[in-house]
Amino acid sequence: MTLTGFHILVLGGGTIGAGWAAGFAGAGARVSVVDPNPDSAEMIAGLFDKAVPIIRDLGTCVSDPIAPVHCLSLDAVNGPIDFVQEALPERLPLKRDSLCAVEDHVSDDVVIASSSSGYTASEIQDGLRRPQRVVIGHPCNPPYLMPVVELGGGKQTTPDFLSAAQTVYEAAGKTVLRVNKELPGHLVNRLQAALWREAVHMATLGVASVADIERAVTQGLGPRWSVVGPTTIFDLAGGDGGLAKFFDDLGDEVDRWWDSLGTPRLTPENRALLVEGMKAARDGRTSAEIAARRDRLVPRVMGAVQQDPTNETVDTSKGGIENVQDNQTFRGGRRWDADDGTIPADGHRR
What we know:
Oligomer: single chain
CATH superfamily of the largest domain: NAD(P)-binding Rossmann-like Domain
Protein name: Hydrogenase
Domain 3-hydroxyacyl-CoA dehydrogenase NAD binding: 8-181
Keywords: Oxidoreductase
Organism: Pacificispira spongiicola
GO molecular function: NAD+ binding; oxidoreductase activity, acting on the CH-OH group of donors, NAD or NADP as acceptor
C-alpha cells in the first residue's frame, strides 16, 4: 500500500495532532487538520518543517511530501476523507461529540482512530452511529519520530476496521502493537507508569537523585531495551536453560524485589521534590534543547538496530512506504486492488 493520494483527517492541532499530521504527510498522505484555534496553523506548519528531515532519516518519507492543511472546521475540509485520526484533549464528552460530528462528513466504511492514552475504544464509541469503525490508534510521543502505534478495538469494533487501520499505520512506517484487551493506558503507558512509579519511589526515599535515576535508564536499561525486551533480558540471564533456569535460580528473589516495590503518591511534597530534582537533572538545558537532542539521537539508535542483519523489527526503509501489503490500497476496511480498482464483495481484508 502507498499513502500517496490518501486523504487523512486529523482532529486536533496540538502536539499529538500536529505530530500525526507531520508523520502522515511525510509518508505521502494528503492531510487536513481540523482545529478551531487559528494559532494552530503556525504550530502545524512549524512541526512539519522540523519533522521532515527526521522522517527522511528514518526512511519513511516520500520524495516530495505535501504540507498538512489547517482547517478551522469540518466544513472547511476539501474532498472525501479516507481515514480519521482523532487527537483531541483527554475529555471523553469532547471526543464523543466530535466523532459524532465527523460521522456526518465521512462515508460509512472509513476508520475512525482515537489517539486516546487513557480512554478505551468501548468508552469512546458509545453513542456513535457506526461504533464498529472506532479503534484506538495510540502513538508514542512524538508520533512523527517514534515507530510504535498501539492498536486495539472496543466491544463493538469489527475486525475489518482493525485490519484496515493496521494497514494504514504500516504504510506510514509504523510498528503496530495489537492490544487484545482493553485497559486504561493500553500497553506502553502502563509499562512506563510502572517504571516511573518505582523511579518516584526511590527518589522520594532518597535512594538516588533524580539525575542518577535518569542515567540508570538512559545508560543502563535503555541501550539493552532498544534491542531486547524485559522478559528476554531474564531469559538470557538463565543461559542455555533460559527463563526456566532463571526462575529456578532467582524466582524467589524476584518475588522479594516485587514485594519491596513502592506505591508512592504525588503529594505536594513529592511533587516539589521531583520538580527540584528535575531542575538539577536538566543542568541548565531548556525543553527545546532536550527535545532537539532526542529528535537527533533516537533516529540514529533506531537506524543502528535496523541495519543489523539479524534485526527482527519492521524495516520501514523497505516496507514502510511502497511495499506494505503488496501495494494494495485500503480505505476504511475495504480493499482496492492496485491493478483494477475492484472491491471484494464482502469488503473485508483477506
